Automatic annotation (TrEMBL):
It is an enzyme of class 2 (transferase). It comes from Rubritalea profundi. Pathway: Amino-acid biosynthesis; L-lysine biosynthesis via DAP pathway; LL-2,6-diaminopimelate from (S)-tetrahydrodipicolinate (aminotransferase route): step 1/1. Its EC number is 2.6.1.83. It comes from the Bacteria. NCBIfam families: DAPAT_plant. Keywords: Aminotransferase, Pyridoxal phosphate, Transferase. This is LL-diaminopimelate aminotransferase.
Amino acid sequence: MARINDNFLKLKAGYLFPEIGRRVAAYTEANADKASTLIRCGIGDVTEALPKAVQEAMHKAVDELGCRDTFRGYGPEQGYGFLREAIADNAFAGLDISADDIFVSDGSKCDTGNILDIFGKGNTIAVTDPVYPVYVDTNVMIGNTGEGDENGRYEGLVYLACTAENDFVPAIPKEKVDIIYLCYPNNPTGASATREQLQAWVDYALKNDAIILYDAAYEAFIQDADVPKSIYEIEGAKECALEFRSFSKNGGFTGVRCGYIVIPDSVFGSTATGEKISIKQLWSRRTSTKFNGASYPVQRGAEAVFSDAGKAEVAALVEHYMGNAALLRTACTELGLKVFGGENAPYVWVACPAGLSSWDMFDKMLSEANVVITPGSGFGAAGEGYFRISAFNSRANVEEVCKRLKALL
Ligand code: MLT
């Protein structure tokens, strides 16, 4: 019989969002009369239509593929030059990031998981707690951890607590770690990191020969001019950080799928014998072997995000979702709940009413308010006692959620 990868058996039964989906499906089956008025603020999935500029670019690209003279087959594995250049010129203007540093993919979820292919065994890996579950589960799958405990914490990972006391930005660890996952603006807490906080992390990474895996999927939602949008705004980051970006949340690409990793030439890892190896060279090799590039129409659509019309439409989408976040923040604050996030990120992170655990609150919201939220403990032990409300929704639905919250509490 074929041997399986036993590491998969260490995983908790279900990935958080499918698990929530299963519970919601069971609830709607038992309460069919409520299904049509259920409001989903669980998974951070966009709801508004793709920008017109994106639609037009994708239509045009499909027409090109439909004509022999303009047809294209396999594209470059790392992404088309037109998109890599548009990203470098627009998303990293003035930061000395070149098109050649950018690797286009079918989304950040895949990228943050797949990046582990190029790192060896024996690294000490740090994740925040709470955390986007993909970082943890992919480390479990590849064998970088031992077993999980009853809180879902895996032996072998260093957990960096993100609490209200540290504004959900972890303290620099005393021990030496080799790889650190940071996500700002943060999923799930909605917190943002200041320049000084990120500088401290970059300084730590440089001192310890560590690599920061910086997930900036939510950078478009930053409202505060002082909050860095990219890790490369921080001195020294080009020597120690990779940045993950996505078109999912700004351009509405959760269903279209497109993201990218930035890997400067100056980030290195080492072999077992201490030889320095370029991370970019390894990722490029990995990409050409395992990936044939994101599809041409999708890359044309992503390019259009950076057109004048695209930028204006993305700005309007961000304004819409951040308007939702402000309403949710206000409603929860008025109820006397402790509210975090939602100012530079589309997630509002709320302390549960006294006496309720995260899953209690999830059940209460589902069964009594007909609203899906995400239980904080699903993101890690330190998320217990919190719940996350996603601001990705229509304005009408968010207004209704605010009403239902007020009626419920
Ligand atoms: C979330 O709800 O945390 C995100 O939508 C998940 C994701 O982007 O994969």
